[in-house]
Design goal:
This protein is α+β, with helices and mostly antiparallel strands. It has 2 domains: 2-161; 165-269. It is built from 9 helices and 4 strands. It has helices spanning 2-9, 15-26, 36-55, 58-62, 78-87, 92-99, 104-119, 132-178, 182-185, and strands at 190-206, 211-226, 231-244, 261-263. Strands 1-2-3-4 form a 4-stranded antiparallel beta sheet. The radius of gyration is 26 Å and the shape is elongated.
């Protein structure tokens, strides 16, 4: 049990969350309390909702282009909270049609795990005054579900970010082909981009409105000198960095141009 508690601690950010976790798990050792398992289950469920609310604030979920009320209160449903934690405001149509990213099976697995967290919060003859071995067995199941939910959310979010890599690389190459970069243009009579690749990039966040992206890579350019009868051509590679924040409503329009790509040509002058 200690290992699972430690894994959950890694997901927590505030002292309140950590204190709630330890207070929740302490119920299991209160052998003389017939409600110890129900109390544990209830407080762990509340901790889960607190953590999920950080990943998926109700106000942000409601602002997503894909959001439509599914509950009588108008609050986001469990499914919608999980979807936001994975994909932010990106639409299902874009994810499936452009990235071949479908999470129906994983979403069902997450919802099943959430249901397990809810299962034992209500007092009935099956959960009241459990034998200690059963109490510990079920507690391990609940802790495991807590971990599995956020591990799978994190894995899906990482997979999505990886799939966006191709879009970013293609857009940057197009930008080098279509635009004149002063720092490159002054290096020769005629400078042409031959190729570029994104070596590393980071998606800082995907929220209800935008995708914040930054990264770095290398561009190879053809440098041409002289006239037609006395010409010389060579190639050189330069590092670049970029930032962009496309709208989730038009994620393929990254808005990358010469203004948000910075090419470092200092090596040319060394």
């Amino acid at each position: 049990m200690k290992d699972r508690i430690s894994q959950i601690e890694d997901l927590l950010e505030s002292d309140f969350e950590r204190n709630l976790l330890h207070a929740s798990t302490s119920y299991i050792s209160k052998i003389n309390d017939p409600l110890r398992f129900n109390s544990f289950s209830f407080s762990m469920r509340e901790l889960f909702w607190l953590v999920l609310a950080r990943f998926s604030p109700d106000s942000d979920v409601k602002k997503c282009p894909w959001f439509t009320p599914e509950t009588p209160s108008g609050r986001p449903s469990r499914k919608q909270q999980v979807l936001y934690a994975v994909r932010g405001g990106l639409s299902e149509i874009f994810l499936e049609d452009k990235l071949d990213f479908n999470i129906d099976d994983e979403l069902k697995e997450i919802i099943d795990s959430i249901n397990l967290l809810n299962k034992y919060t209500h007092v009935n003859h099956k959960t009241f005054n459990l034998e200690q071995d059963k109490c510990e067995e079920y507690a391990l199941d609940i802790l495991g579900s807590f971990i599995d939910i956020f591990s799978l959310i994190g894995e899906l979010n990482s997979n999505l970010k990886h799939l966006l890599h191709d879009y970013i690389g293609k857009e940057i190459l197009y930008t080098f082909f279509e635009n004149v970069f002063d720092d490159l243009d002054i290096l020769s009579s005629q400078t042409f981009a031959e190729s570029s690749y994104v070596a590393d990039f980071d998606i800082k966040y995907i929220n209800h409105e935008r995708i914040a992206i930054s990264g770095e890579g290398y561009v190879t350019v053809s440098l041409n000198y002289g006239s037609k009868n006395d010409s010389y051509e060579t190639s050189s590679e330069f590092p670049f960095s970029f930032k962009c924040s496309p709208s989730v409503a038009s994620p393929t329009d990254l808005g990358i141009n010469e203004k948000n790509i910075e090419v470092d040509t200092t090596s040319w002058y060394e």
